Amino acid sequence: MSTPDLASAVASPVEQAAALLRSDPHAGFAALREAGPVHRIAGPDGLPVWLVTRYVDVREALADPRLALDRRHALPGNYRGFSLPPALDANLLNMDQPDHTRIRRLVSRAFTPRRVELLRPSIERIADQLLTEIELLGRADLLAGYAAPLPITVICDLLGVPVDDRPDFRSWTDALVAPDPERPQDAKAAVVALLRFLTALIARKRADPGDDLLSALITVRDTETGTSTSAATDGDRLSEDELTSLAFLILFAGYENTVHLIANAVLALLQRPEQLAELRANPALIGPAVEEFARFDGPAPLAIRRFPREDVEIGGVRVPAGETVLLALASANRDPAQFTDPDRLDLTRRDTAHLALGHGIHYCLGAPLARLETEIALSALLSHFPALTLDEAAGPIRHRPSMRARGLLALPVRF
Q1: Which one, of 163, 373, 366, 206, lies nearest residue 214 by Cα?
Q2: Superfamily for domain range 12-414
Q3: Residue ranges per domain, the chain?
Q4: Which pairing describes strands 67-68 and 307-308: parallel, antiparallel, or unpaired?
Q5: Residue 329 — φ and ψ, nearest 5°?
Q6: What pTM was estimated for this model as a whole?
Q7: Cβ of 387: how many Cβ atoms within 10 Å?
Q8: Among 64, 173, 247, 378, which is most buried by a count of CB atoms within 10 Å?
Q9: Which H or E element spans position 314?
Q10: Mean pLDDT of the residues in the chain
Q11: Over the stretch 195-206, which tens digit does the pLDDT of each residue have?
Q12: HSE (side-chain half, CA atoms, 13 Å) at 53
């Protein structure tokens, strides 16, 4: 009787490292980065992808026009992403120029640092109100009680979403960001609910517009000249699907990533008392600290997938046209070739050119708002709770088992 070839049954070092990306992504990325700049691995949907691991290659690829976001450039059968209806799918994450430029122009002025700074008093009020509600309890799940409701309140206020329509939004986004493989019907139900919700909201705003971003975008869509106070220029247009998809993207991305940025930052501080003490002693560090939190443990380990329009070379590796390319932001942000002692959280770090918010024309539209919300959230939290610690009695900290999102399931604290 022949002996099985044990070597063939043992995963290669690259396969072993890739298997870590859901449970221990930083360890997995470190091993892959060390092994080479580009690897062929199984992606989040199980299909093969080209994973780019090193800072210089990721940064260059983020701005490379040969790498398209439009799925029409994908080879048939080479992409199995979650299918959205056209009314939610016609958004900036699936577009290249010129449509990307046209639509981004219509909304970009709402997210400039100057415009966003005007929201500071409102965000500070929301943060204070949320912390006041939990401070008498002595302990709380900071994810559910603070990190999640703050961004959703801010983005819904900005878009003009009525308070009564907000409670179900987190369950819908959870079902889309981290779908349960044993309950695929939950994600489909969430898509149906979100589309119904946004369609009804747009209809209400058309009938009774307000002083909010969604009303301004509807004006752009409906005005024949395509001009309005929302900064449209003559010739700009939004189709009805583009309008609905843009509202979906602003709500979804403007909320989900900020939740995880805030929660991951709090966890990083509580696990490193010396850095927490540094920030308490010098509150002026909060701006640079937010950049370091984004670099150290950002909410999106991977950039949105891309498809080469032609055969391209990345890191010396030839990637065929139409195949799926994933750019590992989390890996690039801990590349020792770019950052000194990259696995150490350092709130005074000077080499802060991270890629957590992207690079090039697809740089995160809501970056100024995410930064401001995180600054305010952390400053208010440390001010309210000078004795903030992790609640060890609640059990170990657990992350979502996901390659797409770096987020906590809960953040139990005592104060």
Answers
A1: 206
A2: Cytochrome P450 (1.10.630.10)
A3: 12-414
A4: antiparallel
A5: -60, -40
A6: 0.90
A7: 6
A8: 247
A9: strand 312-314
A10: 89
A11: 999 999 999 999
A12: 25
